[in-house]
């Protein structure tokens, strides 16, 4: 039998790697452009197929996690995404770059439906573990900007992909020797199950779909665009890629704090009580960011990432509470298929909006989209307490 803490530890590490790997390109593209003699708007769309695969692949990987083995799927994740990162560092042409980034997206699609389901299965307190897991994912986002900026500046952009790829493969080897396949079908639900009246489940589904599309699209757009936004708007403070990476990492740390806090709140209060006030954060902060620069932009960006990453924790906890062990990977697969497919489209949308009107147009557009999160939180029904055991 696997130790729950060990399984959750590897799942948290995988969440860190998943987001780190997907966002190396977003930070490296700033220095890749001059090396490849291509502009930001020309290079960024090469990441689109990878982000689409990130979401679309989750349907198959979630099904395999439930029907075959979550452990085996996670082993494939570590080996595949590590090798794909190394491959990006060795490309010679734009076509090879697109293919290697697509490969990262394919293997990255394994983690969320499979790894998240593993955490829910082994967790004693769902909100706390989901919040902590979100912190690791957020730190992956933050570290990607920071480490890529430092490695890119001193060793070149290729090593920014090769070094983390090699480390990921080594973690996969440790996982292979530490975690065994375990059939947990029919086991006791690891987390306390919140309930809603059966006639209100349609409201849960509609609210989840709305907020997943809005937040996933905005989440991905912000994480992809933030390094470039800071490079443009913080020029009066610094032009060093390494220092810009440090600033971006510092902003993302606040998102990690928000995820952990939201996770703890979800163990004490209903989803609606947490989601409703949280839903009012994103739209005004995104709108304000469109006209700000330097220190005020950094402060508003903190509010943006806190709102976006907090919403992700709410969404994941919602699926974990309302699905059974036998169907959990598939439920997460649908959630991430919808979310990441929408998010994948955001990469091309960011490039197009930036070309049309810079970051002013882009941030205003996503501020309007985030108004849907408020509607979704209002739609959520009240929870009813599960019956007390006899």
CATH homologous superfamily assignment = MFS general substrate transporter like domains
How many β-strand runs? 0
Give Rg in angstroms: 20 Å
Task: Indicate the overall shape.
Answer: globular
Helix-strand category:
mainly alpha
* Topology order in helix (H) and strand (E) letters: HHHHHHHHHHHHHHHH
- CATH level 1 name: Mainly Alpha
Mean pLDDT: 84
Largest sheet: none
Instruction: Look up the CATH topology.
Output: Growth Hormone, Chain: A
- Quaternary assembly: single chain
Provide the β-strand percentage band. Answer: under 5%
How many structural domains in the coordinates? 1
- Low-pLDDT residue intervals, each spanning 5 or more residues: 188-192
**Number of helical elements:** 16
Q: Helicity, in percent?
A: over 70%
Termini separation comes to 29 Å
Under the CATH scheme, the architecture is Up-down Bundle
In short:
By secondary structure, the protein is mainly alpha-helical. The protein has helices at 4-36, 40-43, 48-56, 58-67, 70-88, 94-108, 111-122, 126-154, 157-178, 201-233, 241-266, 271-278, 282-289, 294-322, 328-369, 371-379. It is globular and about 55 Å long.
Spell out the blueprint of helices and strands.
Elements: H1 4-36, H2 40-43, H3 48-56, H4 58-67, H5 70-88, H6 94-108, H7 111-122, H8 126-154, H9 157-178, H10 201-233, H11 241-266, H12 271-278, H13 282-289, H14 294-322, H15 328-369, H16 371-379
Helix pairs in contact: 1-5, 1-6, 1-7, 1-8, 1-9, 1-10, 3-6, 3-15, 4-5, 4-7, 4-15, 5-6, 5-7, 5-9, 7-15, 8-9, 8-11, 8-14, 10-11, 10-14, 10-15, 10-16, 11-14, 12-14, 13-14, 13-15
